[in-house]
Amino acid sequence: MIGSVPVEPGLTNVVMEKGGKRVIGFNTEDAQINEGVIRFDIVFYVRMRDGLSQMIINLEAQRKEPLHYAILNRAGFYVSRLISSQKGRDFEKTDYDAICPVYSIWILMNMEENFLTHMHLTKDQLLGSVELPGKDMFNIILIGLSGEIEEHRDEQELHRFLGVLLSPVLDAKKKLGIMETEFEIPTEDGIRRDIDEMCNLSENIWEEALQEGEARGEARGKAEGKAEGEAGIIRQMNRKGLTPKEIAEMLDREEDEITSILAEKRD
Asked: Are 104 and 139 in contact, with CB atoms under 8 Å apart?
């Protein structure tokens, strides 16, 4: 379920009638019904190898770290909501052993460095040695992407894959080529369409970045603000491994102009 399940208490679940029976499931109502409601990006169930037990996966993506709150606090709230919302949907009354573990996976782009963190509940045995049973149901996975596409190394394989997939500067053909040759992922028609859509999304992010640069430079004039935004994007493309010549070809600019922008010192 992509972008359709509300986070707010009381809205995560919905009661339905199916075959004369009362059924409780994730609320997938249209976004216009609750305008302004915050929604999970992606939520789905995964069945375990035993074929019986399940876990809930929540996948979220952040283009940049938020300034007005800590991302861990938001992630903790999301996991808590997905645990508490299971009452009446995945278990009834006091059948707490039926609670599904929750994994909230956050892809954090444009970080200072690549990192991978698993946060979960741990036990500090302060007295005695009694072992109580229970599930490790609270899990937050943080995948930090620096913005630079890593070389293909085993320890950086996940970050290399996500860096290629989410890159705003690689076109669909290059992404598909890397996926086929390095990760042996068959690029069927469905995947090709999805990659094309992601490249279109990257173009929108590009435009947003230009607008952001224009806004910051508005006090110094519209033209200067636009130039500042373009220069920032050019520097970002260079940090991600593109040469001045490649950037010039993509932007239909002179290579000397790109080299001059890269040589400028930022304030």
From this structure: yes
CA 244/CA 242 separation, integer angstroms: 7
**Cα separation of 1 and 3, whole Å?**
7
Inter-residue contact 173 to 139 (CB < 8 Å): no
Cα separation, 210 vs 117, in Å, equals 32
Mean pLDDT by 10 residues, the chain (267 residues): 58 59 52 55 86 88 84 93 88 91 92 93 91 92 86 81 81 81 77 64 57 60 66 80 77 82 71
Residue pair 102/137 in contact by the 8 Å Cβ criterion: yes
- 1 is written with which tokens? 């379920």
The string over 220-230, giving b where at least 16 C-beta atoms fall within 10 Å of a residue's C-beta and e elsewhere, is eeeeebebbbb
* HSE-up (13 A, CA, CB side) for residue 79: 23
pLDDT for the residue 33: 44
| Residue 226 neighbours by CB under 8 Å, 6+ apart | 210, 213, 214, 217
Give the Å distances, CA to CA, from 260 to 209, 216, 253. Answer: 21, 22, 12
- pLDDT tens per residue, range 245-264: 878 777 777 888 888 888 87
3-state secondary structure of 32: helix
Crossing angle for the helix pair 157-166 and 189-216, to the nearest 10 degrees:
70
Closest CA to 31 of 13, 7, 6: 6
Copy the structure tokens of residue 148: 């630079």
Burial class of 187 by CB neighbour count within 10 A (0 to 12, 13 to 18, 19+): middle
In degrees rounded to 5, what are phi and psi of residue 28? -115, 30
Which two three-digit tokens encode residue 26?
Answer: 């994730």
